[in-house]
Amino acid sequence: MAKTPPAGIRPANPDVKILHERDVDVTMRDGARLKADVFRPSAGEKVPAIINLGPYQKDKLWIVPPNLEEKQNDWMNWETVNPEWWIPRGYAAVRVDGRGSGKSQGQCEPWSLQEAIDFYDAIEWAAAQPWCNGKVGLSGISYFAINQWFVANLQPPSLKAIIPWEGFADIYRDALYHGGILNVFMTNWFTAHFLHHKLGRAARDLPDGWGTNMLYRWVHNSLDSGVFRGEQAQWDKITVPLYSVGNWTGFGLHMRGNTEGFMRAASKHKKLRMHTGSHVHPFYTEEGRRDQIRFFDHWLKGIDTGIMQEPPVKLAIRKGRDEFEWRHENEWPIARTKWTKLYFDLTPPAKGEPENIAKLVDQNPTKSTARTYGVTSIGSMGSTSAASSQIMGGGGIRPGMGVSLLTPPMSEDMEVTGPLAASFWVSSSSEDMDLFLTLRHFDAQGNEILETGQQGSPVPVAKGWLRVSHRELDPELSTPWRPYHKHTRRLYLKPGEIVKVDVEIWPTSMIFAKGHRLQLDVQPRDGLGSQGYMHYHADYNDGTNTIHAGGDKESYLLLPVIPAPTKPAKDA
Questions:
Q1: What is the Cα Rg of the chain in Å?
Q2: What is the number of other CB atoms lying within 10 angstroms of the CB of residue 192?
Q3: How far apart (Å, rounded) are the C-alpha atoms in residues 464 and 422?
Q4: Which are the contacts of 309, defined by CB distance < 8 A and separation ≥ 6?
Q5: Right CATH number for 2-310 from 2.60.15.10, 3.40.1160.10, 3.40.50.1820, 3.40.1000.70?
Q6: pLDDT per position as a tens digit, 155-192
Q7: What is the pLDDT of residues 407-446, one digit of tens each?
Q8: Deepest in the core among 82, 228, 419, 511, taking most CB within 10 A?
């Protein structure tokens, strides 16, 4: 391989002119023809292709935020690579309207096995074009990351590298049903794009698309019965070199799949990057593009950029209030992690403290105690929309719900980086109960420290969820720090029955400074920072719920604490 310096981005060739071919037919194995736009060097040189396939309409101009590092041009398209940047650096960009979307005929089935098969055919079509060097890579955000996992299941021979940038890998666990609880982001997403195609400009080209009732399919299959297998990464089949990219603030959609992908994919060549901040900005930064092109130059052009000799894990270590530093690691979870239990202490709060306050302590209390809290049902809301359950005062985010467990002020800085879990005991007066866990960060003055979330709104440190009837674990895939639930049957509660639950909290990174405090909220409804990724609360969530802790009901939060670097000894 030719060697290039590892730092910096290879400059664009100013002599390259971009040829834009519109509405090119891409023929599928069943004879269906999808429409694509191809951006490539006009001189006819053979270059690798970067493909995006999805329902966001290849012709729809994205008006970029004013603070995006890549500036507005006539070819910007939501969550896809920018041709104006990539083509002068020796690549082609291919945007395909997925079946039944944009200008492609048929019926749209988002993230389905059919779409993965179509993507396979589009990859092989591109590789066979006279302008392509036979090598195809996939890079894109969200939708254009998610279906990379699913086409990689099928192992198209011309697919040589993927960069799934902030994209779930298991439609059931990562997107539709968090801990078994329906995420209404997904139903809202489907409705929005159905409307775009039925009432928007796309209806002129595709008047009969989006007839397949995916919404019914998603809601009807509320257990992981195998129906969604085509929309779940089959890790033993994913062997292509991959650079999995997640976002710490992506709890609710775009994070868990990226860490799972790095840990479990069969690929011999894989990297993990975890950043922070908004959803689209990091992809278009110079730093983000440097990671992408160095990876693609290596695998699609045979240029030794040095990226595969670097440690495989790159993490944004957060310090609070959007401050962070990059750090490389050799594995995930980090090998030197000190797995630390903070135990639930549910003794009554001191006089003057809020009734819902409890403690996180270093030792399991010798005596078992319990806290009971009320649960507001939405069953009485009649025909009002499920979204009404998310409104302040209507069963959604309200201060003081459930129990809030708080540490003492930190005696020294504590870094928490990695996957988390909570193990505790619960009971209910109802046949089921929902658990919403939120990890929060407070400074020495008691002010909450929030981060910029994917949607641009302030968010806390981390979140986890579980519907208690879904508590059954998969013993082969579960670890103490990443409980893995089967979701294949419902184990309903008997009134007053006490059961143990293990709740997965999505991975995070945060340094809690000396004097700061960590708080864990355990609530019956979506808590702080849930806007954008809220949940439908079924009507059996009523009556009262109880948390039990201490004694033989050992309950705790498991933290991945990273020891501080050892300071060199001073000379005698």
A1: 25
A2: 10
A3: 9
A4: none
A5: 3.40.50.1820
A6: 999 999 999 999 999 999 999 999 999 999 999 999 99
A7: 999 999 999 999 999 999 999 999 999 999 999 999 999 9
A8: 419
